[in-house]
Amino acid sequence: MKAPARRRTPVGRRLVGIAATTTALATLGCGDDPLVVPTATGLDWLDPTARTGLAGVPLSDSVVVVARGPDGPLAGVVVAFTASAGGAATPAFTVTNADGRAATLWTPAEGPDSLIATADGPRAVLRGAGAIATASTIHRGRNRYVEYRAGTLPVVVSAPHGGTLLPDEIPDRTSGVTVRDRNTELLAEAVAAAFETRLGGRPHLIVSHLHRRKLDPNREIAEAAGGNPRAEHAWWEFQSLIEHAQARVVEAHGTGLYLDLHGHGHPIARLEWGYLLDGDALSLPDETLDLPPWPTATSIRRLVADNGVPFSELLRGPDALGSLLEDEGFPGTPSDVQPSPGDEP
């Protein structure tokens, strides 16, 4: 089950590019003035309480370790963080501040897990566990910026751009699109309720409540969060919760459907089904769209493969999603009535 419309960094790659060791940092220097790294005599968790969260999802709050020397908290100590059971820590290496503290974001693996902090000798172990969502799970991330409601159907619904929260702790983004999609939070709730009414079960629902000026969780993390650690935390939560929901769907049903809801301000009032195709591609004739690369370049490529019908039929034939909605009085493109957006955006 894939969500190709989302631009994201896979969770398994979050530590790529971090390459530092205590030894390397300790020997850095220039000429006869080497960099001296303080050596800690003790390492303790600021809060040693065991942590429990959803497997594969960052905890709502960072965990903090304190390095100590003979005279108390020690700054400048290199601390490495390692999850023992396949979880992750971001960052994996950091340096203690003036209060001797170093923080990381812990993503526990499924089942019992531990986070181990080491500082060239001393080590500290924080116990924890990663749980699996059940049908009654409602998970709200840090400051309730991101929300996940587990479902029972093989459907995952996300709404990344409809949030309204404008917290002062996160600066406004200075690049990329910052206009929010109006009412998509409400639309996501309505879609989930409609599934429940018709099918007796709910889809998995993930919503970002942050305004797009603060976070765009559909973009790569650099553009999405602008380097702000609070925004990056919410980005990881949003992406990881979608992956957690997808894993639950695959475990329970083998396959599923992912729906990413957006809005638009285009002049024509209609539904627009992107399927990862732009207007030029949608304007191609059916016989062209049925040839490579189009059937595998779309977000509904699994539907094409599983149904054994031409791509153009699923895209805008009489039984295509857009066409079925046209029959119910909801105009949209692509459909058999409006095969492409034409010259409109």
How would the global form be characterised?
elongated
Average of the residue pLDDT scores: 90
Helix content: 10-25%
* Sequence stretches where pLDDT stays below 50 over 5 or more residues: 2-32
For the CA atoms, what is the radius of gyration? 24 Å
Strand content: 15-25%
Topology as a string of helices (H) and strands (E): HEEEEEEEEEEEEEEEHEHHEEHHHHHE
SS-based structural class?
alpha+beta
Find the count of extended strands (DSSP E, 2+ residues).
19
Taking the sheet with the most strands, its summary is: 5 strands, antiparallel
Q: Supply the number of helical segments.
A: 9
Distance between the termini: 29 Å
Using brief descriptors, characterize the structure shown:
345 residues, alpha+beta, five-stranded antiparallel sheet, five-stranded mixed sheet, 19 strands, elongated
